[in-house]
Design brief:
alpha/beta, 5-stranded parallel β-sheet, 59% helix, 15 helices
Length: 296
Amino acid sequence: MNIKEIQPEIYKRFEVILQKNRLSHAYLFSGGFGSLEVAIWLSQALFCEKKENGLPCGTCRNCRLIKDRDFADLHIIEPDGQSIKKEQIKNLQETFSQTGFESDTQVIIIDGADKMNPSATNALLKSIEEPEGNIYIFLITENENLVLDTIKSRSQIIAFPRQETYLKEYLIQEGVLPKLAAFVAKVAKNPQDASELALDTWFDEALKLLKKFSDLLMENQVEAFLFIPTVLERFKDKKQEEMAFNILQIYLSDFLPQNPAASLLDTSFEAYRMWKSNVKFQSCLEYIILDEMVNI
């Protein structure tokens, strides 16, 4: 993924920051699209052996190892199951109390910062507030609203636009029909993810199912409630359930400004937050309908 192409404004912004040697020690990258790649690129800039005007060469030993995520002083943390746990952050703290293997600089990339449980968040706060050395932290989330304010207040927040036009054109060039390409571009995290979704028969069936569900939500809440078991048969794991919320919210947005689309959309966001807090998927779907029925 060429970050200069997919996130040109963000690339230009950090290009100036690197040239002036003003990179901050803690960032929150919000939006997901290209954010991990930018964090990797910035890590290369910190360790590159052949910098040119502050920018990484991309070809030296350090740059190659970082690209392959195999550099001793680069630490990438991802969810263990459905969350990032306190033990993962504590292990980092022990690492940072030591000198780096390659230099005096170390980098943390936390991919899925919104998935840190409260204990992990509290452990991380100390590292942000009182770094024990030359440490840089890049927090990545698809939705900054799901990250605690205590983390956001201690980080510089950079919004990453989804770049739907780029993804749509990429998919069309890959042979995907324009209508499907336009929808996939709204939910895909990157070009690879977009290509996989466009070819996935499960995704195609999911679109049809949730289109019917959203229509029922707008027209007949009782029928929508009865349709929930059919939805549950299609969405059977956490990844699929999260995709269901994304698709449903897109369909509901298409109904705006009709009533009750606005209130249903708001309730769907609240249901998603409930789901992130480990409320069952079925209960969250029922909440969307019951809340609307109460407000009628």
